[in-house]
Amino acid sequence: MILISRKQNMPAGAIFSLLLAVSIHQCFTNEVPPTVTASATSPPPVTPGLPERGNYNVTNATGTVCLLARMGLQLNISYLSSSHGKTVQEVMNLHPNITKTSGSCEPDNATLILTENNITLTFIFTLNSTLNKYHLSGLELLAALPNMSKMLFVSNTSLNYWVGTQGHSYMCRKEQTLNVTQDFSLNTFGLQVQPFGVSGDFGSAVECALDVDDMLIPIIVGAALAVLVLIVILAYLIGRNRSHAGYQTI
Q1: Residues in domain Lysosome-associated membrane glycoprotein 2-like transmembrane (predicted)?
Q2: Phi, psi of 149 (to 5 degrees)
Q3: Domain locations in the chain?
Q4: Among candidates 139, 123, 128, 142, which has minimal Cα distance to 57?
Q5: pLDDT string in tens for the chain (250-residue length)
């Protein structure tokens, strides 16, 4: 008798189970790539709104007001941050209600010193007595903010801003940026200042170029419209005269 060996076919369900087991095994044995964590970055500086306009006056030894200033002030500072370990920029407003005012008035120079918490801002004015002209010749900033790795002091005494005439004030309603040093600039809003020749209140104002240019725009537009209206009227009159000239009396 010859014995014949027959291969038994594996059921379809068993094949499916085997393939599923192999796939699961491969998923668990494959190396899982490491999770990439985004590096923490310092948030951008928060820009405050428009600063409040404050009145900052200096009195002399007799108690008479010798320097008048009215303005909103915004500081732009760059410093080395102790928490981030790099140079950061910060924009901050001075608040008139908590800012202390001091200073001095001399015949040829005057200072306005504003102090708020750990910030001291000094304005230095110089008068040319020969020309009776004054200007902002210097700005100094001393700041010790909590996040600073060291105290910041910047100074520039060779400026030439806010040129005015003695006995008159200097005014600039538009936002004005004063570049002081690489690490410090100052924005002013609604500025009016008079460091010399004060007699009770502000004298007549010398307007800055920004305000003058702003006033010239509507004047130029108005003049252009007036010329346009005049041209239309002249064209109408000329056309009317020509139409009458076409008729002859019999």
Answers
A1: 217-248
A2: -70, -25
A3: 54-211
A4: 123
A5: 444 444 445 454 554 454 545 454 554 444 444 444 434 445 566 788 999 999 999 999 899 999 999 999 999 999 999 888 899 999 999 999 999 999 999 999 999 999 999 999 999 999 999 999 999 999 999 999 999 999 999 999 999 999 999 999 999 999 999 999 999 999 999 999 999 999 989 999 999 998 774 544 555 556 666 667 777 777 777 777 766 555 555 5
- Second CATH level (architecture) for the domain 54-211: Beta Barrel (2.40)
Q: Which residues of 64-96 are buried (b: 16+ CB within 10 A; e: fewer)?
A: eebbbbbbbbbbbbbbebeeeeeebebebbbeb
The radius of gyration computed from the CA coordinates of the chain, to the nearest angstrom, equals 38
Q: Cα-Cα-Cα-Cα dihedral of 94, 95, 100, 106, to 10°? A: 50
